[in-house]
Amino acid sequence: MILVVGATGRVGSEVVRQLRQQGRPVRALCRSEAKAKALRDTGVEIAVGDLANRQAIATACRGADTIISTMTSLNPRSLKAEYQPEIIEGDGHRNLLLTMAMDLSARTGQPVELPISPEALL
Questions:
Q1: What Å distances lie between residue 85 and 20, 78, 114, CA to CA?
Q2: pLDDT tens digit string along 52-96?
Q3: How far apart are CA 103 and CA 80, in angstroms?
């Protein structure tokens, strides 16, 4: 299973399209069911949530062998809402990395070495 974060964006949707074209199983972490509908219709498994929600990330990561993140805070549409790029660029990607490592460790029974200390991710 390949998890794509940012799958509804311009780059992410192209990544998903190419993966599905190759017949690969894809799960997308999407912020809303409405945005996920088009992906679901192409056979993509959907996990609803965002990078600020560790439980949603854990659900999305469960069983994924590969994670591709095309998520960025540089979406001009985000400026209309409460815009906090540090949540995506900092906290969100740290949450994703830590959760993925914990899931991999749980599945393999082996510790996963991170390029930075786990404490720095918290």
A1: 30, 9, 23
A2: 778 888 888 888 888 888 876 555 555 555 655 555 666 666 666
A3: 34
**Tokens encoding 81:** 């809402």
pLDDT digits over 33-63, tens only?
Answer: 888 888 999 899 999 987 777 888 888 888 8
Q: Say if domain 2-121 classifies as CATH 3.40.50.720.
A: yes
- Work out the number of other CB atoms within 10 angstroms of the CB of residue 53: 16
* Residue 83 CA neighbour count, 13 Å, CB half: 9
Whole-number Cα distances in Å, 23 to 1, 6, 35, 117: 11, 20, 22, 36
Tell me the domain boundaries of the chain: 2-121
Q: Say if CB 12 and CB 3 are below 8 A apart.
A: no
Quote the tokens at residue 13. 């949707």
The three-state secondary structure class of 31 is coil
